[in-house]
Amino acid sequence: MVLPVVCCSVLLIAGCGSAGDPGGRTAEPSPGGHGGRAAASSPSGQSGRAAASSPGCQVIVRGFSCLMQERIEAARSYLADAPGRIGLVLHDRVTGATWRNASARQSFPAASTVKLAMVADLLVRERRGSVRLAPADQPLIDAALRESADGAADRLWHAYENAGFLSRIRAFGMTGASFTSHAYWGAMTCSANDLSNLTDYVLNRLPDRDRDEIVNDLQHVSPVQHWGVWGAGSRNQPGTKNGWVNINGIWTVNTVGFAGQDARYTLAIMNHLGGEAGFRAGANTLTQVAAILFQGLQIPAPDVGATP
Q1: R_g (Cα) of the chain, nearest Å
Q2: Inter-axis angle of helices 114-128 and 150-160, to 10 degrees?
Q3: Could you report the per-residue pLDDT of 240-269, keeping only the tens digit for each?
Q4: pLDDT for 207-248, tens place per residue?
């Protein structure tokens, strides 16, 4: 899709915290950290008008349509019974409205969601002339994003990245990201708010060619990533980068991406399961939240496994 110019642990990483309320309180809508170009048209099934202008509409977070307000409330109710701790950010790139739950700014293992930040960093640095990507790197970028391939991500990391990665991604709005031990993509934590800011940077501020390359990869992920934001449904043209990690038997399952016409909405969710459940439960929770928000209903649980 071409967007118009508008806007000593046992560690299993295949896709890569702290406490918080899974249901969460809502924050007032704020475009802060989500600057740049915004989409000009609204996605299917969503009015571009803010709920505040519609009498009789229950306002949960100002700036969202009445329909989305209803779906946010349904998602909150669903999350109240979900296992683990959950950080969530939903952002409307048209109105600037943002729903953050109570754990939106709390850090969890980032897992393979960091691969999206790494690709963005490489494309930015190539534009500036500080790195020169080889033709053989393009298939690695595609594999890291589409298949969440750790081997491809490792080759890119060891060829081009270093400890300076952390300071560079702060320009993407990932101010809460950190390394857990050493400088490596698979040893990082961040928050849902960091991932939300990253996605908005990609959509709003990257040059068109780089943005479209990433968008195309995220909209054509392999079946191993057909969950999370993918639950928005094909009608909403979702793109997703998922991540999953098991540290000493404790799973963290994450999803970040976009949905709607012209990628109107971005969604980032991190689920630190804390031993309460496993990968499949976390992947299903994230999928159902996306389905509730963008389709207005729950869907069958995704048939996926934690493929390394």
Answers
A1: 18
A2: 40
A3: 999 999 999 999 999 999 999 999 999 999
A4: 999 999 999 999 999 999 999 999 999 999 999 999 999 999
Which amino acid is present at 209? Answer: R
Query: 100-139: string of b/e by CB count within 10 Å (b at 16+)?
Result: bbbbbbbbbbbbbbbbbbbbbbbbbbeeeeebebeeebee
CA distance 37 to 58: 29
Say if CB 257 and CB 115 are below 8 A apart: no
Nearest to 263 by CA among 4, 82, 19, 74: 4
Q: How many CA atoms lie within 13 A of 254 on its CB side?
A: 38
Host H or E run for residue 224: none
Query: Could you tell me if 95 and 47 are in contact, meaning their C-beta atoms sit under 8 angstroms apart?
Result: no
* Secondary structure (3-state) at 108: strand
- Tokens for 242? 């998922």
SS3 of the chain: helix, strand, coil, percent, to 5: 40, 15, 45
pTM (two decimals): 0.84
